[in-house]
Amino acid sequence: MDMTPPAVAFTLDGKTLLAHAGETIWAAAQRHGVEIPHLCHHDPLRPAGNCRACMVEVNGERVLAASCCRSVEPNMQVSARSERALAAQRGVLELLAARQPKRVDRIDNELDHWCQRLGADRSRFASAFAGARAEAAHWPAPPRADDSHPAISVNLDACIQCTRCLRACREEQGNDVIGLAGRGASAQIVFDQAAAMGESTCVACGECVQACPTGALAPANGSWASLSTRQVDSVCPYCGVGCALTYHVQLDAHGHEHIARVEGRDGLANQGRLCVKGRFGFDYVANPARLTTPLIRREGVPKDPEQVRLSDWRAVFREATWDEALERAAGGLLRLRAQHGGKALAGFGSAKGSNEEAYLFQKLVRAGFGTHNVDHCTRLCHASSVAALLEGIGSGAVSNPVMDVLHADVVLVIGANPTVNHPVAATWMKNAMARGTRFILADPRRTELARKAWMTLQFRADTDLALLNAMLHVVFAEDLVDAASVQERCHAEDVEAIRRHVAPLSPEAMEPICGVAAADIRAAARAFATSKGSMILWGMGISQHVHGTDNVRALIALCQLTGQIGRPGTGLHPLRGQNNVQGASDAGLIPMMFPDYVRTQDAGVLDRVEHYWALPQGSLSREPGLTVVEIVHAALAGTIRGMYIEGENPAMSDPDVHHARQALSGLEHLVVQDIFLTETAALADVVLPASAWPEKTGTVTNTDRLVQLGRKALALPGQARADLWIIQEMGRRLGVTPIAEVDMHGGDAGVGAVFEEMRGMMSSIAGISWARLQREGAVTYPCTAEDEPGQRVVFVDRFPTADGRARLLPAPLAFADERPDNAYPYVLITGRELEHWHTGAMTRHASVLDALQPAPTVSVHPILLAKLGLRAGDALHVQSRRGAIELATRADDAMPQDAVFIPFAYAEAAANLLTNAALDPWGKIAEVKYCAVRLGKAAAPTP
Q1: Can you tell me whether residue 349 is helix, strand or coil?
Q2: Could you say which DSSP state residue 368 is in?
Q3: I need a labelling partner for 271 at 20 to 30 A (CA). Which of 368, 762, 824, 926 fits?
Q4: What is the largest distance, in Å, between two alpha-carbon atoms of the chain?
């Protein structure tokens, strides 16, 4: 049945056009290439009709109509260019222009644009406004400029009160910061309760800046005051949401190109939205601390694991040519391979780079080193999720995109803080809540989404399994199992095993353990099981535990037993932490898998890969590889002697980093490829200066399985080189035949050839050719043919397992490796904060982000602060069995009273000095989300 709504015929300025049913006059005109003046209207914001610049004349009607609000009707005759309509449009523009300042620092001022297009006289009413202001004592003075915010400048004298900023803030981003206060001539835009922008609750997403038509809200750096020399479409390099964006490139005073500003682009994941990092976090690429020359450690200078923050690298390293650095880097690895075999070497790739880099790096390690000791940061974020998903449903990828929350009736968000870690994804969640979707938040902290959530289950840290097993108990006890789904897609013996396991784990029995009322657990389970569509999203609060794999097994069982998978608005979605964690894993940057999750130890796999890579038979190692934490353990033990680390910073990101730094400093040969002299690079023998994301072309895959093309916007600084070129040159020296000649400056040359070789190993992206990506920019996988659009929702009919059914496993009650006791009575929870990302290597070199959050803090409940005899801002001493740090306190009543939260982006107070390296036995992921600590007043500094 054809569900396309009928077209509506109407005439516009004497020309017959077709509109969609319910379409506005303005939208229909725009779609047909007819421009009607507009200021308050801005796609995709809700039409408001308050500026009246888009007035049109409708035949037979006494008054003019606002075309942005008025829907087309059959046979309607509309005039946008009649004398009456033009007079009204021009009059509105002249009235608005009369109150404007003489000059607004915005090159694309829309009011100016329409005044010029319609020939509006800006001075026509200016004297009348000036006279009224002079004569009326109550007439408000022009608002002062507000420069209190590091990112956004406020110039309300340029404001026309179109409310685009208000709608962008409230309705698109869901932040509720911007409002309209006062009446008549005194009306004005305000932030919170008329606070200065810098003192408000603004999260600096910049959606208001992008929406503002006049420059009343603009970037604080003044970048909208001059034309861009170029605009380049790319993808955000931060979290896994994968927002499409456009770089605006300008020339600085010295004639050098730089990214002046960034705008959101209409991509599948973000539809034009960005967060503070994506909009204001790009000047890190031009930071003076950028590595621009190859470095070699000076003879006789030891590696000190206690000195990883170098104030002057010249005391430790000397500059070198590229030939010398590459020969030294590869030569040291070749020597160790010859002396001790490939198993003495290991490589860490990066989820911050491209798919092509990840693919080529894992190939280099396997073919050049002769080992499968290759991994990346997925081991420290979602390895347990991938392990459980591969085991249970045959795929480690998400079933539905984040935006499917808009189609769901119930959404369970557990162990995740999307407003901080995935801000644009959180906007879709807030939009869904506004539409009536019931959100259930489960987390030890009461996160920002709790303000609007239907239910919050604030369970005790580390009791995830008690809560989830109790919900599964309700599903069985109250006969909420979807019988048809279970019969078609599960094994009866698995279902029975879970039934027996959860029988004694009732909400009443689990309430004393997890701290959530039994009635709330029952209500949450019922809502999830009985809705027309329920979806689960989870983060590293679920995965980064020694029982992380069991946590995810319970989530899979909850989803499958209730039939909540395989349709829009249902399914399982582990929110990926870095921009290319999904893609790097897909590309084989993990020790036990080749690209597309083909297990290295499966029969015949090694022979097939050797043939595909044109390697001699038997040249690939037959021994399993080690994971990130296992490699660090092996380095400390002396069995791993050399490493090549590309774009990772284990000296900050690994658990128990004191232990990790000792292991790295003990290596006989360490090669680090990065854009800054990170804590890891400080321990290197050779440092290779690499490319930042805006300086290269390549693909990344976001959390929704969306493969996207990022395009080069800037030249590389100094002697820095493209990552792909460096990996290729290292490979040459290690005996790996290049796929194609790669551009050392980060251009397109050779990138497509690497992508095409990778595609040849991956049936999931068989239909996504390099040529197609050049045309379309983004395609979702699985996509098996070039004429297919790609599958946004998967597991519709069956799972990609041998028999098409899920394998469900019970998740026994289990707890942390290290629990609080009398010596260490409190719990440390770690994570990210909005302004910074991962180990801070990029964001702490971004001026706006560092200004917004310049120093580390520890979040503490006010009651616990008082118990410790502290006030907010006082320094707190936090100590675990592995280390201690001191940092300023932040009062946070969303915290549990027996725990503290520390972000891990700050080298001066590295949270991972405290965390536990204990591993989940299946995912081999470390328990960085939970450890026991003791707290006390920081000692007064010595005079």
Answers
A1: coil
A2: I
A3: 762
A4: 93
Query: Residue ranges of the alpha helices (H) in 168-321?
Result: 207-211, 276-280
pLDDT score, position 1: 45
Copy the structure tokens of residue 618: 């038997």
Instruction: Compute and round to an integer the Cα radius of gyration of the chain.
Output: 29
**Please, which residues have CB within 8 angstroms of residue 229's CB and are 6 or more apart in sequence?**
249, 250, 251, 257
CA 85 to chain centre: 46
What is the spatial distance between Cα 54 and Cα 89, in angstroms, rounded to a whole number?
Answer: 6
**φ, ψ dihedrals at 919, nearest 5°:** -110, 145
Cis preceding-peptide flag for 37 (omega within 30 of 0): no
Give yes or no for a cis peptide into 44 (omega within 30° of 0): yes
**Which letter does DSSP use for residue 42 in this model?**
-
Q: Quick one: which of 885, 862, 840, 892 has its CA closest to 444?
A: 892
In 349-496, beta strands by DSSP E: 374-375, 410-414, 438-442, 455-457
Q: Three-state SS for 121? A: coil
Token pair for 703:
């959390």
Name the E strands within 600-668: 642-646
CA distance 590 to 381: 13
Task: Please report the pLDDT score of residue 133 as a whole number.
Answer: 60
Residue 887's pLDDT is what? 96
> Nearest to residue 54, comparing CAs of 162, 176, 172?
162
Query: SS in 3 state form for 187-228?
Result: CEEEECCCECHHHCCCCCCCHHHHHCCCCCEEECCCHHHCCC
Q: What sign does the CA torsion over 622, 623, 626, 631 have?
A: negative
Distance between CA atoms of residues 523 and 471, nearest Å? 9
Burial 592-602 (b: 16+ CB within 10 A, else e): bbbbbbbebee
Rounded CA separation 12/738 (Å): 60
Sheet of 77-79, strand order:
15-20, 7-12, 77-79, 55-58, 65-66
Q: Write the secondary structure of 16-36 as one string of H (helix), E (strand) and C (coil).
A: EEEEECCCEHHHHHHHCCCCC
The residue ranges of the chain whose pLDDT is under 70 are 1-5, 102-106, 127-142, 940-943
Ranges of H-type helices in 666-733 = 723-733
> What pLDDT, on the 0 to 100 scale, is given for residue 5?
66
Helix then strand then coil, in percent of the chain rounded to 5, is: 35, 15, 50
As to burial, measured by CB atoms within 10 angstroms (0-12 exposed, 13-18 middle, 19+ buried), residue 796 is exposed
Enter the tokens of residue 692: 């930042």
List, as one string, the DSSP characters of 802-839: TTS------------SS---SSS-EEEEEE--TT--TT
Tokens 């010859």, residue located: 338
Cα–Cα distance list, 661 to 26, 299, 306, 679, 712 (Å): 61, 20, 8, 9, 34
Query: Environment class of residue 157 by beta-carbon count within 10 Å: exposed (0-12), middle (13-18) or buried (19+)?
Result: middle
> In the structure encoding, which two tokens stand for residue 675, read together?
């854009």
